[in-house]
Amino acid sequence: MKPIHKIHAGYYWSDGGAFMGVLPWTLWNKKTQVDERRRQKLNLNLLLIMIPGRNILVDTGMGNRLSEKQIEIFQPSEFLLPIALSEFGITDIDITDVVMTHLHFDHAGGIVTAFGDEDALTFPNARYWIQQSEWDMAKNPDDLNRAAYSFEHQLSLLETEGLVELIEGDNEIAEGITLIKTGGHTVGSQIVQADLPEGFYIYAGDIIPTYFHTLPAVTSAYDVARKDTFAAKKLIYSRLKERNGILLLDHDLSHWEIPISELRV
User: Fold this and answer.
1) How many C-beta atoms surround the C-beta of residue 4 within 10 A?
2) Which of these, 127, 214, 141, lies nearest to 171 by C-alpha position?
3) How many domains does the chain have?
4) Cβ neighbours of residue 208 under 8 Å, at least 6 residues apart?
5) Least buried of 3, 35, 109, 156, by fewest C-beta within 10 Å?
6) Confidence at 212, pLDDT banded by 50, 70, 90
7) Rounded to 5 degrees, what are φ and ψ at 7?
8) Separation of CA 212 from chain center
9) 152-199 per-position pLDDT tens digit
């Protein structure tokens, strides 16, 4: 079995204008699924890396603890992560590591799962790899980021019961698996580089969430530092070109693995 796998954790609908940022409506509205409120349908494409002795999951999806207001706004599917993992013969207790590209609700919501009236860590045996600056912002957000995080709801149980590995900058967490801090989308966004015998991959998180965002200048309005997102894309493309690698997309409906040779960047 190859080590790189897409885990489909469901989908949701997000405001298309905000998600596409500077890209005009006329250029994208007929090329993707949009509803009557101009919300765009987005997949939750998580990354599972299966290497000897380690099952590394990147991001956790939205979980099953959304508020009624969030459900009305985002119209999410059911939480499909446990089912998706079972297709690879693994369960929650088999996940050894969880990498968080960042801590927005559509990525961090699945850290905790509701089991009836009780909440518990979804992956009780895992170490959670998070950039220190991202954790600090989620815990004590400034005015610009206050609406982007919900520490008490999504992260407080992880703080008290989980194995949190707060890192600063780039970090190789397993042979060939390197976390690279980029910032851009959030202050502590990180991407995942997998340099394996089977190939060279970069999971870009929300730095490059869909095929539309492969254009260097197209960034989301949710990005806190557009210039840093642009720089991160240049870094990603440079490394992929050097290794003839493959880009992995976290929110696209129809694209997952894109060889760098197929992108005009």
Assistant:
1) 19
2) 127
3) 1
4) 214, 233, 236, 247, 249
5) 35
6) very high
7) -110, 110
8) 17
9) 999 999 999 999 999 999 999 999 999 999 999 999 999 999 999 999
pLDDT per position as a tens digit, 237-258: 999 999 999 999 999 999 999 9
- ∠ CA 17-207-155, rounded to 5°: 95
Q: Report the distance separating Cα 65 and Cα 150, nearest Å.
A: 12
- Ramachandran quadrant class, 264 (left: phi over 0; alpha: psi -120 to 50; beta: rest): beta
The residue-averaged pLDDT of 114-138 equals 96
Q: Give pLDDT tens digits for 77-118.
A: 999 999 999 999 999 999 999 999 999 999 999 999 999 889
Q: How many CA atoms lie within 13 A of 140 on its CB side?
A: 3
Which pTM value belongs to this model?
Answer: 0.97
Rounded to 10 degrees, the C-alpha dihedral 13/17/22/26 comes to 100
**Residue 263: φ, ψ to 5°:** -110, 140
Instruction: Give the CATH number of the domain where residue 175 resides.
Output: 3.60.15.10
Query: What is d(CA 246, CA 265) in angstroms, rounded to the nearest whole number?
Result: 13
| Residue 20 dihedral angles phi and psi, to the nearest 5° | -85, -15
Domain that holds residue 116: 4-262
Which residue matches tokens 């090329």? 31
Cβ(218)–Cβ(21) below 8 Å:
yes
E strands of the chain, at which residues? 4-15, 39-51, 54-58, 97-99, 112-115, 118-121, 127-131, 163-167, 171-174, 177-181, 190-196, 199-203, 246-248, 257-259
